[in-house]
Write a structure and sequence with these properties.
single chain; 136 residues; alpha+beta; six-stranded antiparallel beta sheet; 6 strands
């Protein structure tokens, strides 16, 4: 009986997590090319015809961490955390599952949403796709 329990516990705890690492270059491309008009957020009213990427919004430079980046400005904090990188929708293009946090510093607005982004837009822009993804 002890042998059976040992074997059961061994196999139960030997599941290896899918740990992915992301380079700052990958995260920088997402920051530079993520089209903010393709997902709902407090960023929507800030966009114009000439300002549709995070990098064009005039925010302070992002702070990068292991699997994402944070933009902290006077009124808002935006956090983009990459949960997974894979061809989620099986179209032959690598997608990113992102956890996006959108929080007001002054008010009570706070939103967290998972989204699937893919470099399918014009000039390699990342766009949010309407796919249900797990995360956050």
């Amino acid at each position: 009986m002890k042998v059976f329990i040992f074997i059961f516990l061994f196999f139960s705890f030997s599941v290896v997590a899918n740990v992915q690492t992301f380079t700052q270059s990958e995260l920088q491309v997402i920051y530079d090319k993520l089209n903010i008009s393709t997902f709902r957020s407090s960023l929507m009213p800030k966009r114009t015809k000439d300002k549709m990427y995070l990098s064009q919004m005039g925010f302070s430079k992002p702070s990068y961490f292991k699997d994402g980046f944070l933009i902290d400005n006077k009124d808002w904090v935006y956090t983009f955390t990459v949960i997974e990188k894979k061809d989620k929708n099986r179209d032959g293009t690598t997608d990113y599952i992102i956890c996006f946090s959108d929080k007001s510093k002054a008010g009570t607005y706070s939103s967290v949403q998972p989204m699937l982004i893919s470099p399918l837009g014009v000039d390699g822009q990342y766009i949010a796709l309407s796919f249900t993804v797990d995360g956050c």
